[in-house]
Amino acid sequence: MSIIERYSPLNLAYKIIVVTNASSPVGVIVSNTLLKANALVLGVDNKPKDDTLSASTYSHFQFWKCKLTDDNAVDEIIEYATKVFKTDRINGMVNLINADDDADTLAAHEKLAARCAKIMEGGIDGGSVVTTVVQAANIDAQASHAVGQLLKTNKQVSSEVSKDKVRCNIVAEGDKADAKPYEPYTEAQDHFNFLLKPRDDQYRPKVREITDDIRAMFAFSNVILYLISGMSEGKDGIVLNRQGQLVQS
């Protein structure tokens, strides 16, 4: 059920968003946040669909299980999105990358992001690609991955499409000492403070207690929602951390 008002700048009604690593804890929360904003979400993962995400015939969430490095994976994902959502549009992509992905997997993520971005470029409203990393056990490894592979992937995808049509941005930890408040995101929080509070009923019975880690993932998912939604219109090539602070522009 949506908790976004019809005319909210965060309303993603009829927007089709592809989310990779959708069965990871972060992927589940990101998918739920996008669903609460009325998006049509296609989750992609090589692991089974998470039980907390319903993917019935007419639900806003659909799921495609595949290994991204398979030869036809990207074509199959696009074809499935067209089939289940009855349109060839894609309006956004949350490119969740694992911190320990090998070169082949990273290349597959980049290929899918570039394909989605090309489809967005050909659409009336354009779209947004957000590249980020699934939380790693070693935060230093995550930060190192962010400043390296995420920037490389984002730059490559961005170079293949018009910046007037497709926004390509990153969420990563980076160096906290260099992070500074990002005023557009601070102002945007007035529109979705309700999403900062995790709802217990989304995770029962699988999760009995809302931990600090889960709350942090909710805050992180709101940063992604900001970058995917129309509230980030005109913002391209920026790096925000998981709290919405500016790391690099």
Automatic annotation (TrEMBL):
SUPFAM superfamilies recorded for this chain?
Answer: NAD(P)-binding Rossmann-fold domains
Domain of life, source organism: Eukaryota
InterPro entries the record matches = NAD(P)-bd_dom_sf
Q: What is this protein called?
A: Uncharacterized protein
What is the scientific name of the source organism? Answer: Neohortaea acidophila
Q: Give the classification, highest ranks.
A: Eukaryota, Fungi, Dikarya, Ascomycota, Pezizomycotina
